[in-house]
Amino acid sequence: MNRLTTSWGDVSLARFPEDPRDTLRAWDAADEYLLRHLQEGEGIPSEPSRLVVVGDRWGALTVALAAGPVPTAPVQISDSFLGRQATLANLARNGIESSAVELLSTHDPVPERIDVLLVRVPKSLALLEDQLHRLAPAVHAGTVVIGTGMVSEIHTSTLRLFERIIGPTKTSLAAKKARLIFCTPDPQLRPAANPWPLRYALPDDTGVLAGRTVTNHAGVFCADRLDIGTRFFLRHLPRHRGAEHVVDLGCGNGVVGTAVALANPEASVTFVDESYAAVASAEATFRENAPTGSAAKFLVGDALSQLASGSVDLVLNNPPFHSHRARSDGTARRMFGDARRALRMGGELWVVGNRHLGYHVRLKRLFGNCEVMASDPKFVVLRAVKQ
């Protein structure tokens, strides 16, 4: 946990779930730059107004603004369940009631009118495009629109999106490798239709899914194509039959869980991801392709925290190894540990990952066993059994 200093006072912030081994802060120079700009009296009208914060990663912007001179409760729009939980935890940490902010997901209806729009530029250009399309109807000529991000996150294509969807755009000078984006809404602008979600047919080397259509909402990993790790996993999934409870953990667009449902119609599949867009994608993919009557649940949450211990037969997992732009194995550690808790005795965890990540070491330590089920020069599929 660290303290972010603002002219309104310090706020204590931590990522979620809080991990004493995690040395990463809950904010960066881009958040500081935007807050400093606002503290200098630019961007927040003195009269009550609707202030919306989009893409606040761990609640730093939302909490600092809620603790400061914002005349009305800020609205946070986020695609991340963990980001939302971090915001709630950080509000409580600073003695601020949760009612001081309004929390929305990227798939909730946006406010009808936005007077101040603050955008933390996401890693995914597709997610930014989708967000701006959704928000544009609520923006008016007097809306203050400011984006923020690290210099490495803001490209010419980023600025073009703001210009094409909202209005004329310029950037600030860089400070501590961060930059601000200033956009002036143009009410006469008529942008093209939002291209998201994107749908495409899967290639021939994807087993039972070959030729079937998947749905990808913006922001889902490899939203415009099937990533090579998942493609490799699809060719080496366990060939189980009969009634069993299968979890597609970190489901993304849901192709792994949907492949299980097609190969074993008696299976009950639970799709879990911390991204609202991912779970919406997985549900759309499953509904279009799964056999009639197939049983499925769709959960937005932190790993398998919503599932009872010993309630799962098989967990399939392609864990991320980045937290935003920082490389971290924290998510994989949490997923593996929660999978072991949720599995019944004799239940199996199957993991696909890059060879260099060394997941076999952690799985052997956690499960007492680990077997390589398939490999190529880049990826391995590993199997661990709860004993």
What's the gist of this structure?
The protein has ten helices and 20 strands. It is α/β, with parallel strands linked by helices. Helix 4 (125-135) runs parallel beside helix 5, helix 7 packs parallel to helix 8 and helix 9 (330-342) runs parallel beside helix 10 (359-367).
Q: How would you describe what is shown here?
A:
The protein has ten helices and 20 strands. α4 (125-135) runs parallel beside α5, α7 (255-263) packs parallel to α8 and α9 (330-342) packs parallel to α10 (359-367). By secondary structure, it is an alpha/beta fold. The protein has helices spanning 29-39, 60-67, 81-93, 125-135, 156-165, 228-234, 255-263, 276-289, 330-342, 359-367, and strands at 2-6, 9-13, 51-54, 75-78, 102-105, 114-120, 139-150, 169-171, 178-183, 198-201, 213-216, 245-249, 268-273, 295-300, 312-317, 322-323, 326-327, 343-354, 371-375, 379-385. The mean pLDDT is 93. It has a seven-stranded mixed sheet with strand order 5-4-3-6-7-9-8, sandwiched between helices. It has a seven-stranded mixed sheet with strand order 14-13-12-15-18-20-19, sandwiched between helices. Strands 1-2 form a two-stranded antiparallel sheet.
